[in-house]
Amino acid sequence: MINFKWKKVGLITGLTLSLIVAGCGSNDGNAQADATVSEKMEYTITGTEPGAGQTEKNEEALVAYENLAGWKQDLSSAGAMLTQLSEAIDNEEPIVFSAWSPHYKFAKWDLKYLEDPQGIYGEDEQITTIVKKDLKNEMPEAYTIIDRFPAIMFEAIATGDADASLAVWMPSTHAALYDEYEGDFEDIGPNLNGAKVGLAVPSYMDIDSIEDLQPKE
Questions:
Q1: Residue 14 near residue 196, CB atoms below 8 Å
Q2: What region holds the ABC-type glycine betaine transport system substrate-binding domain (predicted)?
């Protein structure tokens, strides 16, 4: 039986995000209706923390998609973002926000991902586990358990301030940080396949693609 004190193991878990859109559907689905929805959202993405992997992806999308000209991110925290999402859906108000899956919001609300023609958010991702070098020798029991389980603090792991992260999203969301610190940690492989980030909408919205959003005039 594996027996050790978990308090000695510094684990880092975290949430990474994609972009989700919630709002009221239109009957005609024309550009004017889409523009009205975009205007109601004040051309603003309700985001999470500054510096998060998905925050950077959102910034890439704002540059890559011409129809997102004039849009901006309103950054706060994951908790604050989810609160605003809940309130918006309760009132059937439009909202654009950062999100990710797997996450409980996809069970709580009926959501669908938007098509991403520019490929900014990539394809399905793997959630990978990384640990500090020599953890297998220093704490073999902890290493074994971590290796069995399905976030991001590359610097802390690289410097030894933390022992492991169970939520490194690859190959897209955290690729830049992975490349920056590669060699200073051990990658012990994916713990979950089929993770996804990207823009999404609730099923009652007529928007099907990121390109359906309208620029700020």
A1: no
A2: 33-149, 151-215
